Amino acid sequence: MASIPRSGSRGLSSRRAPSPSPPQPPSSTGAVVDCAVYVNGHRQPGEVGYREALQRVRESGEGFVWVGLHAPDDAQMADVGRTFGLHELVVEDAVHAHQRPKLEVYDDTQFLVLRTVQYVEHESMAKASEVVETGEIMVFAGPDFVLTVRHGEHTELSGMRRRLEARPERLALGPTAVLHAVADKVVDTYLAVTERMDVDVAAIEESVFSRQNRWLDIDPVYLLRREVLELRRAVTPLAEPLRILTVNGNPLVPKEVRRHLRDVSDHLTTVIDRVLEYDDLLNSLLQAGAAKVGIQQTTDMRKISAWVAIAAVPTMIAGIYGMNFEYMPELNQPWGYPLVLGLLVAVCAVLFVVFRRSHWL
C-alpha cells in the first residue's frame, strides 16, 4: 500500500508568495490636454509624456516643454509638481481654484493666476440669472517648461496654441512668450465682455429713466451691479502682476516679451476704467431707481387717500340715516331721498375735481 507523501520542500506550502509590486506614481494623463516640446519655436513631432519631454529638453539643453492641464486633482497635480520641481504651495493653489489674480516667484519659476470671464447670453436683464461666468487659468513659467492649468469650461487654450505654433518667432522667445499669450487672450476676453455689458447697462439706464414704464423692476439693476462687482474682482487685481512682469530689468522675462506685456497692461487699464465706470453708473441708477420706487409709492398712497376721502362722504351719510331714528330731517318728505342722493353725488363730484386738480388722481 503506497504511503501518502508528506508535504516537503516541493509542496504547495513551500512556494514563496509573490512579492508585492512597488507602488506606481499616480497617473495625470487624464488631466493633460496637450504636451509638446518646442525647439526654436517649432513643435517637435511625436506625442510624448511630460516626463519624457522634460528629460529630452534637459538632456539636449534646447527648447522647452509646454504642458496643458484641465482641472487636475490632488494626486495628478502632485505628480506634475514632483516632475517639474514645483513648490508645494503653488501645487495646492493649482488644484483648489478660486484664487485671486496674483504673481508669485519661486526661484526661477513664475506662477501667474488669472481669472477668466465669459458673457452669458440672455434675452433681457429681466429674464437673466447671471451675466458673466468666471473661470481660472494658472501659468507656471520656468526656464525650460511652461504649465497651463485651467479651471472652467470656457477656458480652452487649444486655439491659442495653434496660433502661437503658426508664429514660431514668438515661441522662440521661450516659456514667458506663452505666459504673455495667455494673459493677452484673457484680457482680450475682458474687453469683449465689457463691450457686451455696455448694451445691458444702456438697457438698465433706459428702463430706469423711461417715462413709458409705469412700474420699475429694481431687481435687474441689483443683478447687473452684482455681476459688475464679480467682473471687477476678476480684473482689478491683475494690474499689479502685469506691472511686476513689465518692470525693466526683470531677469525672468525677456525684453521683447516685456514690450508685449506692456500692451496687455494698457488694454487691462482700459477694461478697469470701463468696469469702474459701470460701477459708478449702476450705483447712481440704484439711487435713482430707489427714488423712483419711493415716488411711485407716494403717488399710490395719495390716490388711495383721495378715493378713501371720496368714499367717506356717502359712508358717513348712509351711516347717519341708517340709525333709524324717528325724528330725522326730511324723513317724511317725498323729496328727501332724492335730495340726499343728489347731495352725495354733488359732494363726491366736488371732491373728485379738487383731487384731480391737485394731481392726486
Automatic annotation (TrEMBL):
Pfam families assigned: CorA (PF01544)
Keywords associated with the record: Cell membrane, Membrane, Transmembrane, Transmembrane helix, Transport
Listed Low complexity bias regions: 1-18
Subcellular location: Cell membrane
Membrane topology value: Multi-pass membrane protein
Domain of life (superkingdom): Bacteria
Start and end residues of each stretch annotated as Disordered: 1-31
Gene3D superfamilies, sorted: CorA soluble domain-like (3.30.460.20), Magnesium transport protein CorA, transmembrane region (1.20.58.340)
UniProt similarity note: Belongs to the CorA metal ion transporter (MIT) (TC 1.A.35) family.
Official protein name in the record: Magnesium transporter CorA
Organism name: Gordonia paraffinivorans NBRC 108238
